[in-house]
Design goal:
The chain is α+β, with helices and mostly antiparallel strands and 189 residues long. The chain has 5 helices and 9 strands; from the N terminus they run H-E-H-E-E-H-E-E-E-E-H-E-H-E. The strands form 4 sheets. Strands 7-4-8 form a 3-stranded mixed β-sheet. Strands 1-9 form a two-stranded antiparallel ribbon. Strands 2-3 form a two-stranded antiparallel ribbon. It binds iron/sulfur cluster.
Length: 189
């Protein structure tokens, strides 16, 4: 597939997840305290090669020269507790603070993933955001239809990432599973 089509499809996924995130923010408005300026989720993240490549395009195209003043452990795009590339932020950043549905993974003592017989679906949420929700009350508050199913979103993302790795532009990234976001700035230093 053509690289620009893949990036276009990736950006559609980002728009779709943002729409769903907006819907959930309204749904849980009375519980959520997450506001602009809370940047505790903005840690030193890593990205799939497609996400990393697409974000680097946006950083390269930025008219404002970006001066990196990174705090240890914080995301390289965080400035004064605000994301400098908010409209281009990756998928994971659009899910921050919301209730997330995911399949729990089990690992053995050697650190290898163990296949479980029954899928173990779990809901996680941010304690800084849903301050009044606890393990005891979460079932009353979170409707399983109204949480972000991360398996579905990640599957869409991983499928596009595989398409990307097959392109000429993706070839140098074939051996990489994830790339630290901050490596975008290697070429600018
Ligand atoms: S890309 Fe933006 S929203 Fe995502 S972790 Fe970095 S600063 Fe936060």
């Amino acid at each position: 597939m053509d690289i620009q089509k893949i990036i276009g499809s990736y950006r559609e996924v980002l728009e779709d997840v943002s729409l769903e995130a907006n819907r959930l923010e309204k749904q849980y408005e009375e519980y959520m305290v997450c506001r602009k300026g809370c940047s505790d989720c903005c840690t030193d993240i890593s990205l799939l090669p497609l996400e990393w490549y697409a974000l680097r395009e946006r950083v390269r195209a930025s008219k404002e020269p970006f001066i990196q003043e990174r705090q240890p452990g914080s995301c390289a795009l965080l400035k004064d507790r605000i994301c400098s590339f908010y409209p281009s932020r990756p998928l994971i950043c659009r899910t921050h603070g919301l209730p997330l549905l995911y399949l729990a993974e089990e690992y053995d003592k050697q650190g290898d993933q163990v296949e479980s017989e029954e899928p173990d679906w779990q809901i996680s949420w941010c304690d800084l955001n849903f301050t009044t929700v606890s393990e005891e009350t979460m079932e009353e508050i979170f409707d399983p239809e109204d949480v972000l199913n991360m398996e579905e979103w990640n599957t869409r993302l991983k499928t596009l990432n595989l398409d990307f790795l097959e392109t000429r532009e993706g070839a140098p990234f074939r051996e990489k599973r994830r790339i630290p976001l901050q490596e975008i700035f290697k070429e600018f230093s």
